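Please decode residue identities from the backbone states below.
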């Protein structure tokens, strides 16, 4: 089986339904007979025959990637995790056996990050932690530039079902505010056992304010403790990639690639970058 769930995406400023492919599975007893490729071939043909101007997106396994590649799906980018270490003591302890040295280096790292975060902060900006969304998120999304990009919808309705109403996971949102106006947000989830914070979605009205927003978020994580590292996944052509390094986010091993099936009669948007975050992976 394989599922195709249509989700709202903005393609060069236009709202479209994109078929997000997931739950690709094959009975283990029947593998190696080419049945998986026949399944994906049937899905692809059916999708093309039913739609004339829509596209499809999949984050495949390696086996599915090879099959889809042979069926005309193209690789549109890579998903890259970025990690900011707030407390490297656990990792340093695996390399260095001197506890005093580990403690000193950890304090220096934490102090350096705090200093960098303060340098990126700007007067008048602040963050507020909450568990819900409101109509101000629609206002932010409406003003966000979308030309020349492909990104999933971030309206209040979409954010509510994806994060607030999630049946199993608890998400928090850090609102980035300037003079009472919502200017961006970070949606995150904390893994207390692993002392890790994962950013699932991130949006800012002005890209120039991204370092300030992240600096305030890092300051919040450092101040409240319990977090040793912050993890953020972005597609390689996401515009935010150019700025996250300023706050100590270092790229790690590739998480995977994503493929797209373009419309039969594509326009110039075929070359526009897909701007995905970790939150786009789970449907």
């Amino acid at each position: 089986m394989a599922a195709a769930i249509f989700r709202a995406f903005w393609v060069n400023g236009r709202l479209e339904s994109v078929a997000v492919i997931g739950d690709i599975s094959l009975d283990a007893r029947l593998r190696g007979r080419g049945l998986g490729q026949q399944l994906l071939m049937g899905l692809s043909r059916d999708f093309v025959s039913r739609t004339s101007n829509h596209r499809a997106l999949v984050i495949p396994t390696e086996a599915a990637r090879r099959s889809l590649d042979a069926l005309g799906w193209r690789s549109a980018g890579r998903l890259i995790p970025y990690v900011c270490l707030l407390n490297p003591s656990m990792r340093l302890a695996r390399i260095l056996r001197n506890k005093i040295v580990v403690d000193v280096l950890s304090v220096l790292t934490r102090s350096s990050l705090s200093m960098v975060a303060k340098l990126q902060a700007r007067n008048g900006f602040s963050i507020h932690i909450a568990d819900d969304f409101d109509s101000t998120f629609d206002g932010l999304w409406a003003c966000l530039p979308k030309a020349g990009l492909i990104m999933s919808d971030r309206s209040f309705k979409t954010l509510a079902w994806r994060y607030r109403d999630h049946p199993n996971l608890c998400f928090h949102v850090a609102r980035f505010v300037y003079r009472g106006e919502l200017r961006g947000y970070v949606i995150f989830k904390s893994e207390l056992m692993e002392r890790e914070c994962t950013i699932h979605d991130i949006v800012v009205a002005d890209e120039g304010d991204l370092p300030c927003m992240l600096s305030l978020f890092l300051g919040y994580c450092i101040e409240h403790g319990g977090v040793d590292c912050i993890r953020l996944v972005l597609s390689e052509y996401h515009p935010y990639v150019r700025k996250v390094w300023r706050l100590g986010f270092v790229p790690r091993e590739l998480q995977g690639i994503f493929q797209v099936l373009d419309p039969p009669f594509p326009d110039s948007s075929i070359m526009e970058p897909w701007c995905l975050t970790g939150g786009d992976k789970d449907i």
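Observation: The first strand starts at residue 3 and ends at 11.
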